[in-house]
Automatic annotation (TrEMBL):
The chain crosses the membrane at residues 26-49. It holds the Pfam family ATP-synt_B. Keywords: ATP synthesis, CF(0), Coiled coil, Hydrogen ion transport, Ion transport, Membrane, Plastid, Transmembrane, Transmembrane helix, Transport. This is ATP synthase CF0 subunit I. Residues 57-98 form a coiled coil. Belongs to the ATPase B chain family. It comes from the Eukaryota. CDD domains: ATP-synt_Fo_b. F(1)F(0) ATP synthase produces ATP from ADP in the presence of a proton or sodium gradient. F-type ATPases consist of two structural domains, F(1) containing the extramembraneous catalytic core and F(0) containing the membrane proton channel, linked together by a central stalk and a peripheral stalk. During catalysis, ATP synthesis in the catalytic domain of F(1) is coupled via a rotary mechanism of the central stalk subunits to proton translocation. GO terms for cellular component: proton-transporting ATP synthase complex. PANTHER family: ATP SYNTHASE SUBUNIT B, CHLOROPLASTIC (PTHR34264:SF3).
Amino acid sequence: MTNVTDSFVLLGHWPSAGSFGFNTDILATNLINLSVVIGVLIFFGKGVLSDLLDNRKQRILNTIRNSEELREKAIEQLEKARARLRKVEMEADQFRVNGYSEIEREKMNLMNSTSKTLEQLENYKNETIHFEQQRAINQVRQRVFQQALQGALGTLNSCLNNELHLRTINANIGMFGAMKEITD
């Protein structure tokens, strides 16, 4: 890189041979070079630059058009979503109302069935009490009967003597014998 720079520097020190030569004034040459470069760029680059700007403009317009289409689709989807939301809210309200009425209906059914169950339990309780009373009465009757029977047997045993006892046994044997003859 230094060789290229050195060669330009050396060219600047040549003695001028007539009308052709190198201008070593940096400020004057830069302005001329810049105007030549800009002129060439404008002349040759105008078509390329305008094509680039047209392409960029088309891309921007396409992007804007696509954005508008997406916006319209988004608005349409938003409206559909809002409609679905309203529908779901109405259904939720309907379910809520139906749920409350269903709860009330179930509450009444539960209260009625509980009332019937309590009534049946009360009837079973009364029947059980009545049964237990009858059983207790029967047990008391059996005891009274057993005590009366034991008292009667005790009285009979104390009143009966051996002779009366033998006559009763013979009378009973005679009755059994007569019954046997009737059945044969």
